[in-house]
Structures are given as C-alpha cells and as structure tokens.
Amino acid sequence: MLGARDWLGALASIERALARSPGDATLYRLRVLTLSDIGSSHRAWALYRARPELFEAGERARLEAALVARAINWSRLYVAHESGRLAAAESAAKQLAEFRSMPVADAAASTHVDFDELILLNRLNRHGEVVRRYRQMLAQGRSVPAYALAAVGDSLLAERAPHEAVVALSTVVEHDPTDHDAAVQLAYAHIESERFDSALAMLEKLLAQQPAWPKAPGARRGHENRFRLDVETAYGLVRAYGEDLAGAQATLEPLASTAPNNAQLQSSLGTVYLLRGWPRAALERFRIAATLDNLNISPMLGQVAALSELGRFDEARPIRSRLLDSHGSEVRVQDMERRWRLAQDPSARIHAAAGDGRDGAAPLGSRDFEYGIEVRGPLLADRWRVLARSEHRGAEFSDQSVRVHRNDVGINYAYRGLAAEALAGRASDGVGGTAASLAFGRHYGDRWNAGVVLRRNDLDASLQARAAGITADSARITMAYERHEAAGVAFGLQRSHYDDGNRRDGFDVSANQRWISEPHLLVTGLLDIDASRGTREDAPYFNPERVASLDLGIDIDRIGWRHYDRHFRHRLLATAGLHWQQNFGSDWVPAVRYGHEWQLTPSRVLQYGVSWSRPVYDGQRETRVAVDMEVRWGR
C-alpha cells in the first residue's frame, strides 16, 4: 500500500492492527506519521504530544513545524466577525514562538518554518519585516519557495517595491499557472511599476482562458465561473487606473447588472465613478456593497473617500473610526488616514508671476508682476476654515507705475455641496477704501454646479485704471456642466462698475474635450469664447467699446516619471484664436505655455512655466513673455 502511496489504505490497516495491539509503540508511531503525511497535522500533533518519548528529535521538529504551518493556513480563512480577524494569526504566532524555543534537530523543518513565517507576518500586516527577511534570504543564497512568494509579493507592494514584487509573483505564476489570485496580483504589480500595457495583456490572456460558463465533463449546462468575474473586475479597474475610465465603466456596468449581489464588483464600479468625478453615484455603489458584505473594507474605504469629496466629513467620521479600530494596520486603511489628515490639516499656497510686454504700452503694462501667499487653517467642525491672504501686484506703464499690496482675512464654509467664502482687507495704496469679496457655490448632482462672486474694490480689475485712481466693483455668475473627467462646458456672465461711471459687461463660454487618455499622456481640446463691452469711450485705461474672441487650443499633459504619489510631468498649452475689436478689425492671436509639475510628496507640489503670446490691443500687436511659479502645501 505504501508503495502505491495509498495513505488512507495504509492508515486503515494501521488502525486495525492497533485495535488488536493497542500498546504497540511502532504502530503508534506509524499512525502519527501517516496522519501527518496525509495533512491531518493537528491530530498527529495531539497524538505525538501524548507519547513524545516514542519519537526522535527530527520527527518531533517536523510534527511541530507541520502544526505551525497548518495554524498559519487556517489564519487566512474568512472570519464571521471582524473582531476575530487576526485572532487565528495571533494564535499561530504564539505556536511559532513555542517552536522557536524548542531545541530543533531537523534543519529542513526549521527552514520550512522560516518560509511559513513570511506568510504569517504578511497576514499580521508586518510588511516591512517580511521584506527585510526576504531580502536577507536572497542575500544568503536561500531560494524562497513559490508557496511563500505570493505573501512576499503582497508585502513588497505594501512597501512600495513593485519591481521586486513582479519578480516574486512571476515565480509563483510560473510554478503554478492555475494560481489565478497570484496572476491578478502580478497584474497589479505591473501597474504599480507603470507597465499598464503588460498588466492589461496578462488579464486579457487570463480571460481568454476562462469561459464564463464552463461545463463539467458530461454536464448538460455550464456553471458560473466566479474566477472569471473576479478577473473581469480587476480588468476594469486596471483600465481605470490607466486613464481609460470610459472603458472601465463599459466593462464593469454590464457585470454589475449580471451579478448585482457581488460586493467587490459594486465597490469597484463605485471606484470608477469616483475617478470620473461622480461622488454621489460612487457613494450609492459603495453603500450597496457595504450592505452586501459588511466585513469587506473596500466599500467602507470608498464611502470615506466619496463622503470626504462631498464635504460630508461628519458622516464619514464613524466609518473611518471603525476602519481604524478594526483594520488600522492595513496599508489601504493607513493610506485612507493620510488622505483624511491631508483634507483636515492647514494648507498654504505661494505664487509668483512676471511678464514683459516688449513692443508697446499694453494694458497689462510694459512690465508687470504679482506674488502672494494664501494660508487656510485646519477644518473646524467639519465645515469651516479661517483663511488669510497677502498679495502684491505691480505694473509699469508708459507714463506711470502702480504698486498695490493687499492683506485679506476671511472664512470659508463647505458642506453638502454648498460652499461660501467671505474676505475683507485693505490695499496699501488707499485707493477705493476697504476691499471685500463674497462667493457662493452650489453643486447640483454630480454634473452641474453654479456660483456667484461679488467683489468690492476688485483687485483683479484693471491695474491701468487703478494707476489713475479708479477702482471697480464686480459681480460674476457662473454655471458649469461637467459630463465627466474628460469633458465639460462652463458659462459666465460678469459686470464691473468703475468709479468713473464706466460699466463693463461680458460673457464667456469655455469647453474641453479629452481626445487621448493614456496612462502617461492626456491630450485635451479646448474652446474659449468671450465678448464684452464698455460704456465709456474716453476712459484713461484700455476699455474697448466692444471686443470678442474665439480661441481653439490643445492641452498636452505628459507624465515623465511617476512612483506612487510622486511624479514629474510636462505640460504644453497652445492656443490660437481670432480676436476682434470694434473699429480695429480682427487679428489672429497665438499663445503658448510650457511648464513642469513636481509632486514631491502627497502634500507638496511645485509648478513653474514660461509663456509667450502675441496679443493685439487697439490694432497694435504686442509680444508678451511671462514666467510663473506656484508652490502648494496641503490639499
């Protein structure tokens, strides 16, 4: 029987013999070792512990090691309640510690436990320790077996070492092509290595190998292939992470209709909706998923993200607390907490710009500049922020110059799609007295938003007018429709009242449509139309009676380098349009801006650029060159 490896038959023979001779030590040993060989490690361990004197040191080590391995495997099972999520893993850790305290005479058993410990540490979310031990093993020339490499690959991803994770997970898949979970994890490792094409190709190959309704031999109808559903869900998310959000939506929505009770699928669709700029639709999906499976953390994380996006921090807070209490050691929960802190903490922005109009007395001045800082305090009561702003602007005109320094303080309110902001301050030149602004904004669903801005002593009005001691009050109304992240249109109406009696009215329309969406390249088409008119013809500042323009442009956004939440990107913005001014006719006006963006940390961004344009004022063409810079801390 043993020669034919009929372990169960052998065990039955041993049991019959033991029934006749219950005190036979040899048969007792055979029974224990056979139970261990067929995988009944806990029963074998219990019998061995009853009569340990019958076993050699090496056998004892192997039996203890087998029990540790079984305990570690059991710790990976789905639990009935999240309070016991890590109880089995912690119990396995105690058993492993007991094994370590034993005098071990079997090197193979000890080595096996070393590899099993990698799995246990991964289960306990001690990813840094997994990676450190794995690298030590490689340095020592020890080959880690495939069964442990899946856990190693997961920990490498948690520690943001995706290239090493690709190597580890590729070994797992090569060793066992049927390990589909490792194959999907490998696809995610390729994404985090910025290799989106290879990730999609891997998942497409897996899908081709998996029929939706496979048939067992002789069956009349197929059965549901849940693994294919999991791979299709992963495929949709990979498309989303690779900027193909429309393709991701087209992949996941039909699946959600076919399998509406799949919590992970509903949560994945919510993630896509959130990336498309639809937090309300996303929140609905996350809540459905949480109802279907209240132990799955993905929909809980999604609810925190969607509610935070909507400014409903008070509703997100209890969900966040539950996640921190039950899953605080998990990487995704720690990432959630970093984003939460970023949204709650103070933020700041420093900006500066300077321009040179070389060929004449442009309305902006032959030379102009501005710089300033804005600081927003921490979020108070989940709705309020105190803010302060300091700006300095100046320009050189043909016969005079102007310098303005203004400090403002104010408060901001945002909750449930409603936003309001009030600021008040005073300019250093004393022109126009106290300056103030009041802004309101409102979101209607996931696509529409409207806003109103009222300003007294508007610093954004003409500096040329200010040089003549003339200020303006303004009112602006906006309405925008954002179809999704890649298309939208906005409308605006504005009226400015100048101190000299001039009234300037204008309207503008802008639209954008994404043409190319790739992992490292976004190309968007732009359209801008605006027109305005003034009521005073003899104003001592540029104030055309009627003016209009139509501009077409292209925005090219290229990722040069990226590693998780750090990146370097190039951006080229080019426009060309027809500018018309009453009494002066029409002219083509080109403009180009090239800039860089450095995302240094999740809360540190540096942007800078240079621009060139050839505007026309009163029929006279100017050449303008400008530089700009911005640094942001916080959200």
Task: Give me the secondary-structure topology.
Elements: H1 7-20, H2 25-37, H3 41-50, H4 57-74, H5 87-101, H6 107-123, H7 127-139, H8 146-158, H9 162-175, H10 180-192, H11 196-208, H12 226-241, H13 245-258, H14 263-275, H15 279-292, H16 297-309, H17 313-327, H18 331-344, E1 347-357, E2 367-376, E3 384-396, E4 401-415, E5 418-427, E6 434-444, E7 448-456, H19 463-467, E8 472-484, E9 487-498, E10 503-518, E11 521-534, E12 546-563, E13 566-581, E14 585-601, E15 604-613, E16 616-617, E17 620-621, E18 624-633
Antiparallel strand pairs: 1-2, 1-18, 2-3, 3-4, 4-5, 5-6, 6-7, 7-8, 8-9, 9-10, 10-11, 11-12, 12-13, 13-14, 14-15, 15-18, 16-17
Helix pairs in contact: 1-2, 2-3, 3-4, 4-5, 4-6, 5-6, 6-7, 6-8, 7-8, 8-9, 8-10, 9-10, 10-11, 10-12, 11-12, 12-13, 12-14, 13-14, 14-15, 14-16, 15-16, 16-17, 16-18, 17-18
InterPro entries: PGA_export_porin_PgaA, PgaA_barrel, TPR-like_helical_dom_sf, TPR_rpt
Organism: Cognatilysobacter bugurensis
GO molecular function, one term: poly-beta-1,6-N-acetyl-D-glucosamine transmembrane transporter activity
- Percentage of residues assigned to helices: 40-55%
CATH class annotation of the domain at 345-633: Mainly Beta
- Sheet-strand content, in percent, reads 25-35%
The fold-level CATH name of the domain at 345-633 is: Porin
Query: If classified by CATH, what would the architecture of the domain at 345-633 be?
Result: Beta Barrel
Measure the end-to-end span: 70 Å
Number of strands: 18
